[in-house]
């Protein structure tokens, strides 16, 4: 069981790493978000930063097999899925710059990874019950 928790921790780490390479102005994300108001822009950034920090905490909790690690990781996976899905659907954040093909590919991969993470930790939770 501990091996599965280590793999789950690595999957969370992979998910947060895939998120961090998509920062605006980075190697993949090239859209212009200057039209977003300050509150919306910084609120969304604060949410993404918090998601990243909580993901690192979840990595640790999985490694020590904390009793709430599975539930926290499931919630994180759902939040990753929502973030990527609303962006792929063009709902938020809106930008006058079109999403590039590499960005779209990364977001599809990241969405798939979020689903895989959720299913993996859910299976661990059921196996441990």
* Overall SS class: mainly alpha
Helix/strand order? HHHH
What is the mean pLDDT? 93
Coarse morphology: elongated
Largest beta-sheet characterization: none
Distance between the termini: 11 Å
**Overall tally of domains:** 1
Radius of gyration based on Cα positions: 15 Å
Please work out how many helical segments DSSP would assign.
Answer: 4
- Give the DSSP E fraction (strand runs of 2 or more residues): under 5%
Low-confidence runs: none
Number of strands: 0
Q: Residue share in helices?
A: over 70%
Transmembrane segments: 6-27, 39-63, 69-92, 104-127
Keywords: Membrane, Transmembrane, Transmembrane helix
Protein name: DUF8051 domain-containing protein
Pfam families: DUF8051 (PF26225)
Describe the structure.
This is DUF8051 domain-containing protein. It holds the Pfam family DUF8051. The chain crosses the membrane at residues 6-27, 39-63, 69-92, 104-127. InterPro entries: DUF8051 (IPR058364). With 129 residues, this protein is mostly helical. It has one domain. Helix content is 72%, strand content 0%. The protein is elongated and about 50 Å long.
């Amino acid at each position: 069981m501990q091996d599965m928790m280590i793999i789950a921790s690595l999957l969370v780490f992979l998910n947060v790493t895939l998120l961090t390479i998509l920062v605006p102005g980075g190697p993949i994300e090239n859209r212009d978000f200057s039209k977003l108001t300050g509150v919306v822009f910084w609120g969304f950034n604060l949410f993404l930063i918090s998601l990243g920090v909580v993901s690192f905490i979840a990595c640790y909790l999985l490694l020590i097999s904390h009793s709430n690690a599975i539930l926290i990781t499931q919630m994180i996976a759902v939040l990753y899925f929502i973030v990527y899905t609303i962006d792929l659907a063009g709902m938020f954040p809106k930008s006058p710059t079109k999403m590039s093909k590499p960005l779209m590919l990364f977001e599809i991969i990241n969405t798939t990874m979020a689903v895989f993470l959720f299913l993996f930790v859910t299976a661990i939770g059921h196996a441990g019950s």
